[in-house]
Amino acid sequence: MPVKAQRKRRFTFVKDYFTFATHTTAQLPASIWYSQFRVSMQSEFYPFQSDDDRLYFDFFSVSYDKTITKAVVFTEFSYAKRLFNLALVDVLSDGELSDMATSGNNLDLEKVMATVSQCIRLFFEKYPDAEIQIQGNTPAKNRLYRMVITRELSNIRKYYEIYGANGPLAEPFEVGKAYKAYVLKLRTL
Amino acid sequence: MKTQVKTIEERKKQVLSDPRVQAIIIEKMEAAREFIEGGGLEKMRAAKH
């Protein structure tokens, strides 16, 4: 299929998706639904829902040929209060689940990451004293996270402190340095 | 035929009750144990940047 036709087809599908999203919102009045119309944004992101505790969020990653449900799960460490792990999980169409192997699997990495950043923002509204640990379980995922953080660093630092951790040591995030995990906290004035 | 739409709470329950998701979370928490128990978290909290 020519690229132009693919783009047109994708646009149509996304448009239909937003129609579906609006319909879903109406069906779920008790839940919290966020979309471009309710949350100011810097980058385009997918409409998403959260539970009342803002510890669970989900959204649809959409391309012209498939839709992947993604869930963002915040879990407080049992042995470190106020520190939460962030997990981004793909809920596959057959009901299977997988940790985010490549969020580029729908060629929408930027939009997925923008959506996750909105989830983080809303999480911090509810838990301003919390810290979030972001950790890939493979070197490839950590490289991906580092790439995204590096690219968005100036924006991130407007609102958050970002640290890189290796073993027991953490330091303010440095571009070009490899870390095993990243820790995010709200910037204090 | 209308498709049954699950609520956010139903979807949350489905995802969080899956043992593979629990395994992912536990794996990441265990991986962070050295950082936490080694004092990295406390030092980070105490530091002012």
Could you characterize what this model shows?
The complex is a heterodimer of chains A (189) and B (49). By secondary structure, chain A is an alpha+beta fold. Helices cover 33% and strands 32% of the residues of chain A. The longest helix of chain A is centred in the N-terminal third of the chain and has 25 residues, at 3-27. Chain B is an all-alpha fold and 49 residues long. Chain B starts with 7 loop residues before the first helix and ends with a helix. Chain B is elongated, with a radius of gyration of 18 Å. The mean pLDDT of chain B is 84. Chain B has four helices and no strands. The A-B interface holds A 24, 27-28, 30-32, 49-51, 56, 58, 69, 71, 73, 75, 77-80, 83, 85, 87, 89, 91, 97-99, 131, 133, 135, 137, 161, 163, 165, 167-170, 172, 180-181, 183 and B 5, 7-9, 11-12, 14-16, 18, 20-21, 24-25, 27-29, 31-41, 43-45, 49.
Task: Provide a short characterization of the protein structure.
The complex is a heterodimer of chains A (189) and B (49). With 189 residues, chain A is an alpha+beta fold. Helices cover 33% and strands 32% of the residues of chain A.
Q: Outline of chain A, from the CA principal axes?
A: globular
What's the quaternary structure here?
heterodimer
Largest interface (CB < 8 Å): A-B, 42 and 32 residues
The DSSP helix count of chain B reads 4
Uncertain ranges of chain B: none
> Main β-sheet of chain A, in a few words?
10 strands, mixed
**What is the N-to-C succession of helices and strands of chain A?**
HEEEEEEHEHHEEE
Shape of chain B: elongated
User: What distance separates the N and C termini of chain A?
Assistant: 53 Å
Output the radius of gyration of chain A: 17 Å
What would the average pLDDT of chain A be, to the nearest integer?
Answer: 76
The overall strand count of chain A is: 10
Please give the alpha-carbon distance between the first and last residues of chain B.
Answer: 58 Å
Mean of all residue-level pLDDT scores of chain B = 84
Quote the beta fraction of chain B: under 5%
Structural class assignment of chain B: mainly alpha
Q: Provide the succession of SSEs of chain B.
A: HHHH
